[in-house]
């Protein structure tokens, strides 16, 4: 049997069949890629009008049609470029009249150099200078592409238009493949790239095209969910053909040529968006509002799945009368502040930013902010739209959070402090038929959902939606396929929660997944159970499923293929039997001609009558006995009903997983002696991807009195011959150890041998193993005294042997246990070690513990010294974080306590992180510096450097230093140094605000307002730069003072100036810099 590609708008399978003359062989349907519709290749010319596509296919269509070259950094199984490579191989031409070159490249250090070399080559064909160059990559590649993107941004004036279509995909050990946006958000901000998001496959083509047009203004990143939305097969009605793409691109490009050169990038992008909407008849906006007209609370969201859930869930809640809304961020960079403020209703009082952060630990870490939150906070603080600005809160969620309508609604409700509904009924799903297929990835019927979906797509009145997810860590590879059917267009990028029919094709999965939990009340469940006997029903069907079936009136069907040996023994016939069984239960009124098509898909098919006859024997409706109502079994309570996607392809069974077992010292000795044979690499902290250095404590002294309740200390490190270098304003990353005494207590409590050796995966590369003792691992690698996330409780429950403990652990991971979990995390401040001590029956092996508990992360502190002044020293100023928990125990921040207790000469592992705190390029540019508490650290470095310049005879300009703390006697941090700099003329104004040294509170903004004329001179007239370092709360008040200075200067000169817009301009020029936390 041969398959020919159809160019029809319907499904691709049934009409592709060519019967061979010989009927001795069977057909074998193969899915080529999850990024292709129903897994089948599609010619470029057939992408037009109503057709079944995936989001990734449409991204590739635009990239191929408009580009000179495509630089593809796609890991082998991600298939981000699979269609483009096929088109190039077949010689398909782009809109410029020649085949686009597709260059598959590897993601590694120095990635992007090849593309740069081509764009800036002396031999570059200048006739192609205006033709876009395109990059296809997952977000996990961006960190390796940073250097190339940085150089491209700097030289963009002489480069070809450059657009990167980035699928948000990263891998985490806990959650598998996740849609990670943080890297792209951070990179676009730091490098000045454009960043545009598409929310679904329906938008993928338009936004890919728009991003390519924006690339004519600035290097642009188009980001979209690469785990789910870009891989779902669905029908798009208005797909633009390649001819149409060429016309739109040509017409809108003329707008770019005619743009006012005086417009900034934000203005140019807005004009381009208007022209794009006019051409296509669309209404895309930089920020799109949905929800109640008079919303009191508005949520700000970014991301593909997040955007669609916001549209559906919040619109539903608003329609029910709840005064909430959502702003969906489409254009993140340039961040068009006027458009954001315009999108918000005037009624808003609370703005909640749903900001993604990297890990669960970052969610609970108060010092970590989402990137999106910082932009929203700054924009709202500067706006004059409200007499009293709305509050802005950061509702963080980790990249591993896979939202469903229910979990998204729960997040909304919890953020608002309201009760959490167990399920939410969305209007979009009311007329949708939903089906779920469970199977193992080595099953002969694993492609049945694709075959059935393609078959149902033959009916032009149907809209079929198909998604497939793989978990290769369960039963050696499990597949869950969600198939949806609707007469209307649907956009549902989340797992089905209430399916009409669920079919389980592999019996062993009944003990691995909660198969019945996703069946709706009065729904249908099909179980494939060969050689089934009624008397064995309680042995073969778990009690949890039996009880659920009876309690929710689920119709149970048994498919026993052994009753039809011809279908049981032939793989393709067996698949056909499963497909027909499903269709009989789910679509009993299916057209006869479609069933005939399905039957003839086999090269030597049985007749439809034979199939129906076999089905009558094999499939039966099982009468559920009343006794099942009394069935009670909690064993499946923790079984998943959705998968944690960790692959896009079936598990390669021949690969063997490395064993992370405990060994003795002799094993390590072999690795050290025979390095090449054992692949041993000896390096400093090989588990860390950042470059690390060993430095030694030179000085460690407390700055506040010993009797004072805050321990703020100054610590200096001798760099020696470490090679560590840093720039003014950068931060020092400290890779701190856990408390040795607490580690020993845990080792004894857990009954471990401290000297046993264990192979542990490195923090950032699971393919790299390092050998450590148990003691070393707990001191340096494992965050055993960190805060456990919900998922930890869920997983640990599987190891508990005591039923009471098992139920309590499981409950902590459910919505019902949210309050208890919150109390434990925020009030009791429970650690991983505390949990193991509390639940003594839950004892995973040490290798399993390594996987369960997250790795230690570095902590970063602003550097309080200038290397040009002290070449061999780096200094920090730090406050010890401590608190008393609900049990009266004094707890400490892990890194701050570690540093405060270091003796002189102690070795520390450190790394350097860039920062936004940079001195102006002009040495004589004034500095206005505002620091609260330890936020003064970078300004000590600034002052040191300017003092050195003054000593060299250079004109350094004015320095205005404003500092704030509670008491002068206890917290005049570096006070003697500031006074000395003031006497020496380095600092020209010192405004110290000690808030509690007098009856009335005096804050840093008060001192600034008292010296407003000095600020006008230094900041406005002499074009100085303003810096604020410390907590976020003074940002609006301090900014108001700066606005007053701008307004005062404007009045003197008779000018009309908008202070808010002027602050925006200063921020873009690097003259308004915040480093707040």
Number of helices: 37
Distance between the termini: 64 Å
Write down how many β-strands occur, each being a DSSP E stretch of 2 or more residues.
Answer: 41
Taking the sheet with the most strands, its summary is: 7 strands, mixed
- List unreliable stretches of 5+ residues: 1-27
Strand order in space, largest sheet = 5-4-6-7-11-10-16
Mass-distribution shape: globular
Helix content: 25-40%
Let me know the average pLDDT: 86
Structural class by helix and strand composition: alpha/beta
Strand-residue fraction? 15-25%
Task: Tell me about this structure.
By secondary structure, the protein is an alpha/beta fold. It contains 37 helices and 41 strands. The strands form ten sheets. The protein has a seven-stranded mixed beta sheet with strand order 5-4-6-7-11-10-16, with helices on both faces. A seven-stranded mixed beta sheet has the order 20-21-19-22-23-24-25. Strands 32-29-36-27-28-33 form a six-stranded antiparallel beta sheet, covered by helices on one side. A hairpin with a 3-residue loop joins strand 8 and strand 9. The N and C termini lie far apart (64 Å).
The gist of it:
Helix content is 34%, strand content 21%. It is built from 37 helices and 41 strands.
What distinguishing features does this structure have?
disordered N terminus, 1077 residues, 7-stranded mixed β-sheet, alpha/beta
Topology:
Elements: E1 2-3, E2 17-18, E3 49-53, H1 55-66, E4 69-72, H2 82-89, E5 101-104, H3 113-119, E6 133-138, H4 142-154, E7 162-168, E8 170-172, E9 176-178, H5 182-191, E10 194-197, H6 201-214, E11 220-225, E12 234-239, H7 242-257, H8 265-280, E13 287-291, E14 297-301, H9 304-319, E15 324-329, E16 331-333, H10 337-343, E17 350-357, H11 360-364, H12 371-382, E18 391-398, H13 405-415, E19 433-440, H14 448-456, E20 463-471, E21 478-486, E22 499-504, E23 519-528, H15 537-540, H16 543-551, E24 555-559, H17 565-569, H18 571-586, H19 592-599, H20 608-618, E25 619-622, E26 662-663, H21 665-673, H22 675-678, E27 693-702, E28 712-718, E29 731-734, H23 740-749, E30 757-761, E31 769-773, H24 774-781, H25 790-797, H26 803-812, H27 818-826, H28 832-838, H29 846-852, E32 859-862, E33 873-879, E34 882-884, E35 890-892, H30 894-900, E36 907-913, E37 927-932, H31 937-951, E38 959-965, H32 968-971, H33 975-983, E39 989-994, H34 1004-1010, H35 1012-1021, E40 1025-1030, H36 1035-1052, H37 1059-1068, E41 1072-1076
Parallel strand pairs: 4-5, 4-6, 6-7, 7-11, 10-11, 14-15, 14-17, 17-18, 19-22, 22-23, 23-24, 37-38, 37-40, 38-39, 40-41
Antiparallel strand pairs: 1-2, 3-12, 8-9, 10-16, 13-15, 19-21, 20-21, 24-25, 26-30, 27-28, 27-36, 28-33, 29-32, 29-36, 30-31, 34-35
Helix pairs in contact: 1-6, 1-7, 4-5, 7-8, 14-18, 18-20, 23-24, 25-26, 35-36, 36-37
